[in-house]
């Protein structure tokens, strides 16, 4: 049985109340985001609640483990000595054993560079004189910028063009760390494209975004006759019902889902329970309701290759970008 965890957001504390307010706000935002009250703010000194107050508040909620998140920049003396000593003394006075897990401070996160870069961007670039770029060279220039930014990232070479295309489409470097490729996904996708296998999509926006220059059939049956009525009778979303209606037609073909988590969940069910075997699944729906969970469900299978990502981000344009990157890779290889 997993430990019941409570989370302590620890800051130094200040005599200026407005400085402490950010910690209260952050804690409230975390409670709202995770839909749990198992977060408590705590200050090392100069403000309330104290670390001991926070620990006592969490202990009263029958937790087994406290995860301490130090809202500090670096691993200085407060992190390595002062805070652990305060926590140790507070826990020793409890009438139950509670495990303490100390996380790294904010400044140690690998994306701290991205944050600093974003905050400084306008100040640094307003002194630059930007040169005009010919329209035909804009994409090449963008790809050069992306490649310089990710050149030190470790990843298989066949995955790099796919990640670059997604970053180019979204302008979001978070995909560099969040994308997941399973089961030789790029090679299997290119093999299916070379064989001119059909690309099935969950929505017409993905269908519209896929490059059809090389003659690949791209199908979306979302608006086919009978889908809306069948979905209503089955108590399913149109996207999930449409995908289910394809059944064994999905075998050996590519399925690209960028919008509907319900379609991805249904597809995984079909893979696990009915033996459906697409050549490749691109599962990257976007949103705050079941998008993240549907991708986690996909990551629980190993029967078919897939490309997905962690978290809520994604979308139809991302799914289409992945397919287009594979089409280009297959064309270049051929």
UniProtKB/TrEMBL annotation:
<dbReference type="Pfam" id="PF02570">
    <property type="entry name" value="CbiC"/>
</dbReference>
<comment type="pathway">
    <text>Cofactor biosynthesis; adenosylcobalamin biosynthesis.</text>
</comment>
<dbReference type="GO" id="GO:0016993">
    <property type="term" value="F:precorrin-8X methylmutase activity"/>
</dbReference>
<dbReference type="InterPro" id="IPR002762">
    <property type="entry name" value="CbiX-like"/>
</dbReference>
<feature type="domain" description="Cobalamin biosynthesis precorrin-8X methylmutase CobH/CbiC">
    <location>
        <begin position="137"/>
        <end position="328"/>
    </location>
</feature>
<protein>
    <submittedName>
        <fullName>Cobalt-precorrin-8 methylmutase</fullName>
        <ecNumber>5.4.99.60</ecNumber>
    </submittedName>
</protein>
<dbReference type="GO" id="GO:0043778">
    <property type="term" value="F:cobalt-precorrin-8 methylmutase activity"/>
</dbReference>
<dbReference type="InterPro" id="IPR036588">
    <property type="entry name" value="CobH/CbiC_sf"/>
</dbReference>
<dbReference type="GO" id="GO:0046872">
    <property type="term" value="F:metal ion binding"/>
</dbReference>
<keyword id="KW-0413">Isomerase</keyword>
<comment type="similarity">
    <text>Belongs to the CobH/CbiC family.</text>
</comment>
<keyword id="KW-0456">Lyase</keyword>
<dbReference type="GO" id="GO:0016829">
    <property type="term" value="F:lyase activity"/>
</dbReference>
<dbReference type="Pfam" id="PF01903">
    <property type="entry name" value="CbiX"/>
</dbReference>
<keyword id="KW-0479">Metal-binding</keyword>
<dbReference type="GO" id="GO:0009236">
    <property type="term" value="P:cobalamin biosynthetic process"/>
</dbReference>
<dbReference type="InterPro" id="IPR003722">
    <property type="entry name" value="Cbl_synth_CobH/CbiC"/>
</dbReference>
<keyword id="KW-0169">Cobalamin biosynthesis</keyword>
